[in-house]
């Protein structure tokens, strides 16, 4: 059975941990979109690994990991990540990591343009990770991007970089920012791509062969549904399709290759960056930050925290075709006496059961809550679903009923072993 793992909220739902858990029974793990704006945390054997571009299956021996065509790759960042993870004792050989020759690359100037754009937006900034993701995808869609395959023709790459540098410098100079020289960019990028070349190949036939021969594939989503360029809280979104459809366009595998969609959500809601967050709650944020939780894996920023929002989850389950839910961080709510669940938004006197499209409506959305008793019991040592307190199981049942999908996995701690199958 082949499975998409997709985030149902604003990212950081614990996808990395769930992918890692499911990798045990998989052969191939594939990333299909996003870039190193992602930060996926896996804790195994007491060791913490943070992965940005590498699929989480890299931590397992004898699994194939693929970075698909839909991902934007910062070659310098990926080389650094490979070195860091190898430094943690994980071997990353060319047969263990395959990179699509059709993947576009993030240039150093994309990161500067990302930062410049954010600075220019001032208080209206998106709150991006400043990894150059938006500008790199913009070049891709604008048909002036660079793909890894292009490096077979160095002259073409040099010309294209010169062209991109000239355009970027105009913008950067307008903002009094440091400009680039084509030579420096070429030196940096060519060196990094050279290092990656043993991994670069046409991944489409590799994935099709794995599928046709009955191997088990896992599609590791990055970001979350509300950050999707189409379905998210536009413009406060990322620049890719983070939802289930991205798994096909970003890998070249067709929809019929996929049988299961595991939607990952936290037992509450978090968000980094700007944009609407109707159930955001300062008290819950302070509480979780006080426990040392909810600091971003990529940027270290504190994440805003709020109550479970089933308006978001309802739409996320629809657009992704979620067949199973994985609810992580249940333990974060262990000591709360009373828990709120948002079941709808009141906007100008009208009850909304699905997120609105209009951005001004988001700003006026008042959550409609129901409350449930907390369990006020430490769940982190629970070894099975049956071990969970009755009130915790009731909370999960209510979540499932409101979202229209069954809960199949529950996270009660960050470690690989703290995942319970229902
Ligand atoms: P991802 O981007 O979706 O892979 O999620 P991140 O790794 O960015 O953020 C999730 C955070 O929650 C990380 O710090 C994980 O170690 C942690 N985590 C995941 N599942 C659980 C859980 O069930 N309980 C606890 N306490 N932490 C968890
Ligand atoms: P994972 O895979 C949480 C957010 C940024 C910002 C918006 C746009 O770890 O869940 P971008 O740099 O993509 O242009 O930023 O998207 N964002 C994430 N938030 N988790 C992520 O990834 C994110 N990737 C991007 O904070 O609001
Ligand atoms: Mg993350």
Look at the structure and give the mean pLDDT: 97
Bound molecule kinds, no repeats: guanosine-5'-diphosphate, 6-O-phosphoryl inosine monophosphate, magnesium ion
CATH class identity of the largest domain:
Alpha Beta
Q: Calculate Rg over CA atoms.
A: 21 Å
CATH-defined topology of the largest domain: Adenylosuccinate Synthetase, Chain A, domain 1
List the domain count as a whole number: 3
Indicate the percent of residues in helices.
Answer: 25-40%
Describe the structure.
This protein has 12 helices and 20 strands. The protein is an alpha/beta fold. The protein has 3 domains: 3-101 and 200-261, Adenylosuccinate Synthetase, subunit A, domain 1 (Adenylosuccinate Synthetase, Chain A, domain 1); 104-196, Adenylosuccinate Synthetase, subunit A, domain 2 (Orthogonal Bundle), CATH 1.10.300.10; 265-421, Adenylosuccinate Synthetase, subunit A, domain 3 (Adenylosuccinate Synthetase, Chain A, domain 3, Alpha-Beta Complex). The strands form 5 sheets. Strands 9-7-5-2-10-1-11-15-19-20 form a 10-stranded mixed β-sheet, with helices on both faces.
């Amino acid at each position: 059975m082949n499975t998409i793992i997709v985030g149902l909220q604003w990212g950081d739902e614990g996808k990395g941990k769930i992918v890692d858990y499911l990798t045990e029974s998989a052969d191939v793990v594939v990333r299909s979109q996003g870039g190193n704006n992602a930060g996926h945390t896996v804790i195994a054997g007491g060791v913490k690994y943070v992965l940005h571009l590498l699929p989480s299956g890299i931590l397992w021996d004898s699994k194939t990991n693929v970075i698909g065509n839909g991902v934007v790759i910062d070659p310098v960042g990926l080389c650094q990540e490979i070195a860091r993870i190898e430094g943690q004792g994980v071997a990353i050989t060319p047969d263990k990591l395959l990179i699509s020759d059709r993947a576009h690359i993030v240039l150093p100037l994309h990161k500067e343009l990302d930062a410049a754009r954010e600075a220019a937006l001032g208080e209206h900034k998106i709150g991006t990770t400043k990894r150059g993701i938006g500008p790199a995808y913009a070049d891709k869609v604008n048909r002036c991007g660079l793909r890894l395959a292009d490096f077979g023709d160095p002259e073409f790459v040099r010309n294209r970089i010169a062209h991109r540098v000239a355009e970027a410098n105009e913008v950067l100079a307008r903002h009094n920012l440091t400009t680039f020289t084509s030579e420096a960019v070429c030196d940096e990028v060519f060196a990094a791509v050279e290092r990656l070349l043993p991994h670069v190949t046409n991944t489409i036939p590799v994935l099709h062969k794995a599928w046709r021969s009955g191997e088990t594939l896992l599609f590791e989503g990055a970001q979350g549904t509300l950050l999707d360029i189409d379905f998210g809280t536009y413009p406060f979104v990322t620049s890719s399709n983070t939802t289930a459809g991205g798994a096909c366009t970003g890998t070249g595998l067709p929809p019929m290759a996929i049988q299961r969609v595991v939607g990952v959500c936290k037992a509450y809601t978090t968000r980094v960056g700007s944009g609407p967050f109707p159930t955001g709650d300062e008290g819950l944020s302070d509480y979780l930050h006080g426990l040392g939780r909810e600091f971003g894996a990529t940027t270290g920023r504190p994440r805003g925290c709020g109550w479970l929002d089933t308006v978001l989850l309802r739409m996320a389950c629809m657009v992704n075709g979620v067949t199973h839910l994985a609810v992580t961080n249940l333990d974060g709510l262990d000591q709360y006496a009373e828990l709120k669940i948002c079941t709808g938004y009141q906007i100008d006197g009208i009850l909304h059961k699905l997120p609105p499209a209009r951005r001004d409506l988001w700003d006026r959305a008042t959550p409609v809550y129901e409350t449930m008793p907390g369990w006020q019991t430490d769940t982190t040592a629970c070894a099975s679903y049956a071990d969970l307190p009755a009130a915790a199981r009731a909370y999960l049942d209510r979540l499932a009923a409101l979202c229209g999908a069954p809960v199949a996995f529950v996270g009660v701690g960050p470690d690989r072993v703290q995942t319970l199958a229902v």
